[in-house]
Amino acid sequence: MKKLILLCAMSIMMFACKTSSVTNTKLDNKSEKAMKGNWVISSVSYPGSEYIKVNSFDLADSKCFEGSAWKFVSNNNKGTMDLTSASCTAFSSPITWFVNQEGQFVLKVLNAGEKAKKVRSGYVLAVANQTETSFQLVDKINVGGKMTDVVYQFQKIN
Q1: Any signal peptide, and if so, which residues (predicted)?
Q2: What pLDDT score was predicted for residue 119?
């Protein structure tokens, strides 16, 4: 009997200590619907940008994302991103994304024809200053042991 009680207590503790993941939380449908449509990144800013280069989303220099076109479809959380800067290598990719109730934007960059469930890595950014025509995604990077914000400013295009 004592073993059974001990086993039950250990089971309860194990389930109670389960960590939560950004991908296991509920969605913020209001924020997602506000992001629906076509957007362009008007600027990428961070302290020390004149001295430090940031490789955004493991794809290109952060400045290559200025002028990039993004399409967000809120009913199926898919979309596209297109890097079109003349001074950078062109890149186009399907994406999958969502916004959780903690205000975190979760992004996966996919290869053509690849399903999101096959992609094990992604990016988590904070959503900030969201309006009908603009919003910001904020990434945290480590610069010399200090956490620094990289701010991607999105503007809606018609």
Answers
A1: 1-18
A2: 55
